[in-house]
Amino acid sequence: MAKYLLQRLGLIVPTLFFVSILIFGLQQLLPGDPALALAGEERDEEVIRYLRQKFHLDEPVPVRYWYWASGVLKGDLGDSVRIQRPVLDLVVEKLPVTIQLAAMAMAIALVIGVTAGIMSAVKKDTWVDYAANVFSLWGLSMPNFWLGILLILVFAVRLGWLPASGYVSPFEDLKANLAAMIMPAFVLGNAFAAVLMRHTRSAMLQVLSSDYVRTARAKGLNESAVVLKHALRNALIPVITLGALGLGELLGGAVLTEQVFSIPGFGKLIVDAVFNRDYSVVQGVVLCTATAYLALNLLADLAYFLVNPRMRA
Amino acid sequence: MRIRQAFVLLLFASTVQAQTLRIGLAEDPDILDPTMARTFVGRIVFAGLCDKLFDLDEKLNVVPQLATSYEWSADNKSLTIKLRNDVTFHDGEKMDAQAVKFNLERHKNTPGSTRRGELAPVERVDVVDPLTVRLHLSAPFAPLLTVLTDRAGMMVSPKAAQAAGEKFGARPVCSGPFRFVERVAQDRIVLERFPGYWNKGEIHFDRIVYQPIVDSTVRLANLRSGQLDFIERLAGSDVAGLKSDSRFKIDRIVEIGYQGIYFNVGKGEPGSKSPVGRDARVREAFELALDRAALVKVAMDGEAQPGNQWVSPSNRYYAKNVPIPKRDVAKAKALLTAAGVPNPAVMLMAPTTSDAQRIAQVVQAMAKEAGFDIKIQSTEFASSLALADKGQYEAYVLAWSGRADPDGNLQIHLGCKAALNYSGYCNAEVDELINKARSTLDPAQRVKLYEQIAERVNRDRPIVFIFHRHWLWAHSAKLAGLRTVPDGLVRVQGLRMN
Questions:
Q1: What is the pTM of this model?
Q2: What angle do CA A227, A229, A235 make, to 5 degrees?
């Protein structure tokens, strides 16, 4: 296992290098001159010249990449041109918000999705199965922004139970924090729960019809032990992969949901940065997201060892 | 006893609540340094944070704020400003003539300063005495006073600015009614009442929290659920729904900017090749095909004032000799026939914002009746600006946020080789008149000059001005003391919660 871990870690370094080139290169394809976008309405020539010089926009792309990459290696992700703050500060400021939102959404998705998936597989072709399928179809087809606005109108405007949007740090006021995060987490979790439910159901159906489950039943184990102890562990492998990918995606920032609920996470940060051509912010955030994605994939691979003893050999 | 305690607590809680003013912004402001700031939304925050030498009133008159009076020299090439004696910055430093000199020089000399252009005519600043400064200009410049009602007139603490250097915008220190507490990017900007404010009798809140909420529906939901007291830029489509709710009030102000359609008349190939860029008769036909009132009704839910110049018809500098033309499809067709292009094809570039898209669609439908074949090229805003800058467009739907002095809406767009002259328009006669108007201080004489400019620009039509948007504010009905100044900024002096 240690060898496997080292192999995987060794792969992460060139992958990140490749990703960094990709982020930088793709950004150059964005139409529009960042200096023009940042120079303000008057677009003073002097300001444009200053911005080009300060952010090396007048240098060739490889030179600019070198400036950026060497900064990153020293832990300097550059400065946001728009608000003149270090990108690292912004990442550190937004990361806990994004992590909390992603974790809450994932927890909601897991509880709803995996439970519904198991029940739907175990009670195949009964009303439970049909209800779970209808729920998953609903979750998949409901646009996030629409569900978000609907929830705001019902729970904030009509009932006044929850704040319409915004964010409060859990260290400031935990209750207010949960009240602010529950709707966006549900919106995000709901869509992902549907995906998880579909995958858990099909994996469970496959495992439940396998020989070793029949053997388990034949030796007189009760149904819950068969389902939870024998079938679920195997069925969880594809679900873990999916969960890790989903979590990685959530950590990349839930653009629409963060926009609707005004949650100051990565999604909002990156959308604003793209529209304002705030290159260093886009690069910094995407790099962090990519790193998180790779780390989560590694964790998912390690999780296989835990749930599937055969892989430990 | 418990009930009484609870009641007292409740009363106390509501009082505390009432002392914080929560304002919903449509965007996240950029850097909070008046020298470097670039966005309109940032100016809304500055209105609570930084006082200016002068301010504007509801009729766009220049009124003193940190200044007490001003006087032009006989040759109009120097402006002497007397200052208040009771102003301190948020760090306790005194705001005096030396500080004004420092600030104006900082605006002019800081690398990357977006104020440099606005203060270009100011050659030198002299401290006459501790409460008097004199600005020496290279030439008379009428818009200078209105320039000093905006960020160029904002004074920051020299000591704090020198200490913070480039990072000043992260913790700005000004002399306004509220001082900076914290900023969480894209979440909130918090200000608290400055006890040493010179006009503290007019301040009735302890804190202001500015919250950027981009989606107008969500901004409104926050107001309706009581999380915000005030929102700017209410969507026109939400006006009817909110009007019937007695808990809220709506204010509307005609903006100082405009919405226009720019034509590429002299900026490279697409313009010179297209009939609409080549021939002024085709542009006149285009304008005659438009029904501005209907356009405002359909595209803007009625929330704009039709117009045909760089200032609105209600502005004192509106040229009355060039009124809004009535829609005349027959005349438009005749003009197109005379120009030899009965069905000119026009590529109309429109940013992807919902306003611009709706305008482009309505214009497309209206112009079609006159024979125009308009194709809409939807382009993301920053990309559209880059294309316009390179002259790679034929027609372009573009809004300008506006300046209080008419020169700020005119010269930068229509002056030969001016920074935002996307049309590539250059008319020596117009240029001369623009320069004359900016160096003439007498408003009556300026009106006459703008009439001459309007007549000539209307002949060439590099831009067809179509309307002036309403700034729509929605707020709790209990919020009183709002001043509707056409620059769209929320002045916090006098604001109170009843």
A1: 0.85
A2: 65
